[in-house]
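Re: the 243-residue chain
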Amino acid sequence: MASKQHILVVEDEKHLATGIRYNLEAEGYRVTTTGDGPSALAVLDGDGHDIELVVLDLMLPGMSGYAVCESIRSGNPSLPVLILSARTLAEDRARGFDVGANQYLTKPFDLDEFLSRVRNLLALHSSRQPQSAGTAHRIHELTFGNARVNFDTFEATVDDQLVRLTELEMRLLRYFAQNEGRVISRQELLESVWEVSGDVNTRAPDQFLSRLRKTFERDPAQPKHFLTIRDAGYRFVIQPDAS
């Protein structure tokens, strides 16, 4: 139930933090607020073990939101992080996703959109909790080409060398693995992996596919596993020769 879901808001502007807290509590959530990065990490390391979502500003005193997100992600790969920032440049958004943010919302923001994103990320977190017997099978490991990926430990190797993937890259790779061989539209990826409307105008799927190619393909310019199907979408192939 929503009343049991605990959200950490990291925002140094007190009036904004108060407004966010008021609206979240009106929706039935439990809210903890902090005004800087070290305090946020202390909450997560202390009594914040039940926190299910972090709403994170980027321009914080002493420690940037990027560093906070990176620290969160190193200790908890699955905890959803929603960046809430006045920074609007594409490179700021890209850096936010690089350090592991799930979503990025710019200030000033629409309250209904903010609450919708909160609900979606909390639902995502709930769906990642340990599954009981009889639930749908999920892919835990993937081997293709010269790569091996463990989705449970968030570890990946190429030619037995450890490679670092962001949480969002892992989610995208898992979705490809679960739909191996099928053409997946850009709209489907945005809705299923990024959890935004498929009508959003963004090159994020292409950019992340390019990064997966650079990591896993022997020749990224002539990919064998991560394919772009013109005017249709994308396709992941484990055994190119068999296809």
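The CA atoms of residues 25 and 55 lie 14 Å apart.
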